[in-house]
């Protein structure tokens, strides 16, 4: 038996992909699928702020792709938004502060539709939550998961617009976040009655450490495929 922790990758079908935006850019990414079954749902991940080191390999997203196809029958789509570089490569264009990144979100959702990937959920982390809140309503998604939302670039009107949308929203808020802590999150999201705030005791914005990683991945799966819980912490098979 091997303990599931750190950068360990469990078996999956992994494919380097490219997304094409409506304004003519090519974005690089990866799709990870369950090895021998069809996925029950799809995580469309939106990474933290690229000007602060965020990219498709930011650790929670990389670990979601490394573990959840095998542990929870989920497809995981990761990609670099415009102007962002990772070991996979560099997406064309340049960072636009969350404005033209609307085209990047749309390109990811076009890919999901073209591939017939089921039940797509937007999973944003930090800056990625801003993109999910700003642009998620425009797309055919099953729901939204917000990890450490700073709410720097999302207006009160953009938040309140979700009030009339019955798709589920879950905000996973670190107790010790640098930007938005649970009490403040409850207040900022009060205009969306059905949004669920999940406070994480001891949590920090970057979710460092295996305990926090497991908690975040558990909250994602609880929203998207709760029948897969509890997530295994050991793996008896090939890696």
Explain how this protein is built.
It contains six helices and twelve strands. It is of the alpha/beta class and 239 residues long. α4 (156-160) links the parallel β9 (143-147) and β10 (169-174). α1 packs across α6 and α2 (101-115) crosses α3. The longest helix has 15 residues, at 101-115. The model has no long low-confidence stretch (mean pLDDT 97).
Strand content: 15-25%
Helix content: 25-40%
Distance between the termini: 11 Å
Cα gyration radius (Å)? 17 Å
Quick synopsis:
By secondary structure, the chain is α/β, with parallel strands linked by helices. It contains 6 helices and 12 strands. The strands form 3 sheets. Strands 2-3-5-4-8-9-10-11 form an 8-stranded mixed β-sheet, sandwiched between helices. Strands 1-12 form a two-stranded antiparallel ribbon.
Show the helix and strand layout.
Layout: E1 2-3, E2 13-20, E3 26-33, E4 41-46, H1 59-72, E5 74-79, E6 85-86, E7 89-90, H2 101-115, E8 120-125, H3 127-135, E9 143-147, H4 156-160, E10 169-174, H5 182-188, E11 196-200, H6 210-224, E12 234-235
Parallel strand pairs: 4-5, 4-8, 8-9, 9-10, 10-11
Antiparallel strand pairs: 1-12, 2-3, 3-5, 6-7
Helix pairs in contact: 1-6, 2-3
């Amino acid at each position: 038996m091997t303990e599931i922790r750190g950068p360990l990758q469990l078996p999956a079908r992994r494919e380097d992909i490219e997304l094409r935006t409506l304004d003519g850019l090519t974005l690089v990414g990866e799709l990870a699928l369950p090895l021998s079954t069809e996925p029950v749902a799809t995580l469309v991940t939106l990474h933290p702020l690229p000007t602060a080191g965020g990219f498709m390999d930011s650790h929670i997203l990389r670990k979601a792709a490394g573990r959840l196809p095998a542990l929870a029958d989920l497809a995981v789509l990761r990609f670099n938004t415009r102007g962002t570089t990772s070991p996979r490569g560099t997406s064309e264009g340049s960072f636009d502060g969350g404005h033209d990144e609307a085209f990047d979100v749309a390109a990811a959702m076009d890919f999901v539709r073209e591939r017939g990937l089921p039940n797509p959920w937007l999973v944003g982390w930090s800056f990625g939550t801003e993109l999910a809140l700003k642009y998620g309503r425009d797309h055919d998604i099953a729901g939204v998961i917000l990890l450490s939302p700073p709410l720097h670039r999302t207006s009160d009107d953009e938040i309140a617009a979700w009030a009339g949308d019955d798709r589920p929203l879950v905000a996973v808020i670190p107790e010790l976040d640098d930007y938005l802590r649970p009490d403040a999150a409850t207040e900022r999201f009060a205009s969306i009655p059905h949004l669920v705030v999940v406070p994480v005791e001891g949590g920090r914005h970057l979710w460092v450490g295996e305990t926090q990683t497991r908690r975040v991945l558990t909250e994602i799966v609880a929203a998207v495929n709760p029948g897969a819980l509890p997530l295994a912490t050991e793996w008896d098979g090939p890696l």
